[in-house]
Amino acid sequence: MSAAAPPPLLLDDELDLLADWVPLPGAQVIELGCGAAALARQLVARFAGAHVTALEVDERQHAKNLAAPAAGIRFVAAGAQAVPFGDGGFDLALMLKSLHHVPRPLMGQALAEAARVLRPGGHLYVSEPVYAGALNDLVKLYNEERAVREAAQAALDAALQTGPWEAVREARFETPVHFADFAAFEQRMMRPTFADHRIDDAKLAAVSAAFAPHRGPDGAHFTRPMHARLLRRRGG
After folding, report:
1. Region 100-125: what's the mean pLDDT?
2. Cα dist from 83 to 50, 90, 109, 115, 224, whole Å
3. Which of 95, 122, 125, 135 is 20 to 30 A distant from 173 in Cα terms?
């Protein structure tokens, strides 16, 4: 009888994994698609001398970021496919659940831009949600992302074949996700500032009904499966 598969790694703080893979104290970091910059804020608070240049293409989220500045973080309005900085200025580039949001024809260009702005020997850390799990089953009711998530992984594979990259590490893990109630899910997942999912009454009711079985006394708890890959720019 074959041994049972081990349970998936549950990772509360992805920064712990990143810190285990690359040196962060004093690092010059660029985040491509920072969202609310949660990990960037933790990074500069935990690691002395680290600095993050955080790019965000969504104007509303960028305005929120500017309204909540943090020492060690520079917020810049720009997309991953057109980084407004010179060559070789960063030690580490981050793409956290952001590569699949880059327009599909421009994913390769975004990865080329990451290579351009990294110093030789610098690293690119890409963390992408896996198309699986109960949370994904809810999201796909109003936002089907199988194609773009597969395209993101294909773009990484192509970059490793044709770009100045070598694969260093990869890991699969799950992160806990909690919603106090359906209203919290709706606001956070169905009505983000960066996308219009065209939520009408019928779609809202269908997602609410699918969400209901997951509710408990303290809200709904999910885990999100993730796939993280660390690439190194050749030349260092």
Report:
1. 98
2. 20, 12, 10, 11, 29
3. 122
